[in-house]
Design a protein that fits this description.
Layout (H helix, E strand, L loop, with lengths): L1 E17 L2 E15 L2 E7 L9 H9 L7 H7 L4 H18 L3 H4 L12 E3 L4 H10 L5 E5 L5 H11 L4 E5 L6 H13 L2 E5 L19 E3 L18 E4 L1 H4 L2 H13 L3 E4 L6 H10 L5 E2 L17 E2 L2 E2 L9
Parallel strand pairs: 4-5, 5-6, 6-7, 7-8, 8-9, 9-10, 10-11
Antiparallel strand pairs: 1-2, 2-3, 12-13
Helix pairs in contact: 1-3, 5-6
Length: about 325
């Protein structure tokens, strides 16, 4: 089995800001595996929040044995970006060698398009109102918050897109006191759900306060081992392949979360269509899909995913799976 790891950069259309900072490019790692004349690919987005860099993740992949399969991989690398890229590449390789689609190999129903959120990055109220107005036609807007002036930002977005469905992501940016004060405002403005209002590791307060709207765990949920600590604090979990360490664990987490009574959201880092393709399989039937990474880029992969009024469509075999 031949394996290649390549760092790539895709420019973002403008600037993408969240409570932790801003960026103008998506730096990704692409893993390619080849065997028996077939080739599989996977993409990951190393994330500094989890102590990852492009270099550290590339080193993790380089340290793997030459020959491996998905089952062995789960014990060789922890959940995270490195395992994600390799796991998805192995799924793609298996599908190419079998002449079948990944959804068939995984025993899933044939996938269809899923409505996805479109993210408005953190900015001034005036700029966010303008963003909201430009994208008011989209079925679901996701608003990045997490700083002073959030009420003004929310009011501005609602004014810019008065009929849009809205969800909010604080990226760990609020204290318990700030969230308690903001929650009634979110409800008043018709926000459906709030994602990770408090820092991971400091979210016990969520179990002790009223939750007037559903709360979703993002940074607090990585894989199935996370679930036990989320009960009573969260209503949904955000399944991201760069956190779970690939499609294999993402599918297992989705089923375990549902069995434990959690709703499921399927999200992404800012990556290309190659990173979104396996996530589309996980997003089938989810309460929320947030797979808009390619829509935020100025340039995407060849054979990109199709986004239209019905949502994000499953990939073609030329891209993945």
């Amino acid at each position: 089995m031949r394996r290649e790891v390549r760092a790539e950069s895709f420019p973002i259309a403008g600037v993408f800001r969240i409570s932790r900072g801003s960026r103008t490019e998506a730096r990704v790692l692409t893993v390619t595996v080849e065997e028996g004349g077939a080739r599989g690919r996977g993409e990951c987005v190393p994330y500094a929040r989890y102590g990852e860099t492009v270099e550290s993740v590339a080193a993790q992949v380089a340290g793997l044995p030459e020959r491996l399969d998905r089952a062995a991989l789960q014990g060789l690398l922890p959940p995270g970006a490195a395992r994600n890229a390799v796991d998805c590449a192995l799924w793609d390789l298996e599908a190419k060698r079998a002449g079948r689609r990944v959804w068939q190999l995984a025993g899933l129903a044939e996938p269809g398009p899923e409505v996805t959120a479109y993210t408005l990055s953190l900015d001034t109220p005036e700029a966010m109102r303008a963003q909201a107005a430009r994208h008011a036609h989209r079925p679901l807007l996701k608003i990045k918050l997490g700083g002073e002036g959030d009420v003004a930002r929310l009011e501005a977005v609602r004014a810019g897109a008065p009929r849009a469905r809205i969800i909010v992501d604080a990226n760990e940016g609020w204290t318990a006191e700030e969230y308690a004060a903001l929650a009634p405002v979110l409800v008043r403005l018709g926000v459906e759900m709030v994602e990770q209002p408090l820092p991971a590791g400091e979210d016990a307060a969520l179990g002790e306060m009223a939750r007037p709207l559903p709360v979703c765990a993002d940074e607090s949920c990585h894989d199935r081992a996370s679930l036990a600590g989320l009960a009573g604090r969260y209503d949904l979990v955000n399944v991201k392949l760069d956190k779970t360490g690939g499609l294999t664990e993402a599918l297992a987490l989705r089923e375990a979360a549902r069995a434990a009574g959690f709703g499921v959201m399927v999200g992404c880092m800012v990556g290309t269509s190659l990173a979104m393709a396996p996530a589309v399989l996980v997003a089938q039937g989810a309460a929320y899909a947030d797979l808009d990474g390619p829509l935020l880029l100025a340039r995407d992969r060849a054979h990109p995913l199709v986004y239209d009024a019905r949502g994000v469509h499953p990939s073609t075999p030329e891209l993945w799976g």
